[in-house]
Amino acid sequence: MLLLTLVRHAKSSWDNPALADFDRPLNARGERDAPRMAQHVRRALGIPDRIVSSPALRALTTARVFAETLALPASRFEQAPRIYEASAERLLTLVQGLDDDDRHVMLFGHNPGFTDLAHRLARCSFDDMPTCAVVQIGFDTKTWADVAERSGAQRFYAYPKQFRDKT
Q1: Which of 8, 145, 147, 158 is the most exposed, fewest CB within 10 Å of its CB?
Q2: Interval 129-163: pLDDT, tens
């Protein structure tokens, strides 16, 4: 089985209107949610074989928090510029090109592409992925090239609001 875990970036800041969208950092809530969600993911899903992130600052920062929490070696962390502003079709092409040696891949990126991709790949229990939401989809296939629309099944879904104000 192949496992694809999609993580939408944590909440970003709009405080500086002069910043390009690509360069927006996390806001205070995003900085709190990312490590909390990373800890939950570590307990619930384990450690992926690879993390692939959009290079946009808010996604990259979220991915780095997860990588650190998961103690993922730097050699298993990469950036993929084509994730930024990608459609579901483009993201599916990226997924189909993943290395078959990586059985569990965690992608970090943006909406609407991530929500659209999740719904194309599987029947999902949610309408929209909020910031820092995590969905895992499993595929009963041996190669990423065989991943197709509706070929997966949702195995996990969580979002930060479920864990706020809980210790």
Answers
A1: 145
A2: 999 999 999 999 999 999 999 999 999 999 999 98
Q: Are strands 104-109 and 50-53 parallel, antiparallel or unpaired?
A: parallel
Written as one letter, the residue type at 147 is V
pTM for the structure as a whole = 0.96
Alpha-helical segments (H) within 46-150: 57-69, 88-96, 113-121
Residue 76 DSSP symbol: G
Between CA 150 and CA 136 the distance in angstroms is 14
φ, ψ of residue 87 in degrees (nearest 5): -80, 170
At 152 the three-state DSSP class reads strand
Are 110 and 10 contacting, i.e. CB atoms less than 8 angstroms apart?
no
Give alpha helix (H) positions in the chain.
28-45, 57-69, 88-96, 113-121
User: What burial class does residue 13 get, using C-beta atoms within 10 Å of its C-beta: 0-12 exposed, 13-18 middle, 19+ buried?
Assistant: middle
Integer Cα distance of 9 and 132 in angstroms: 5
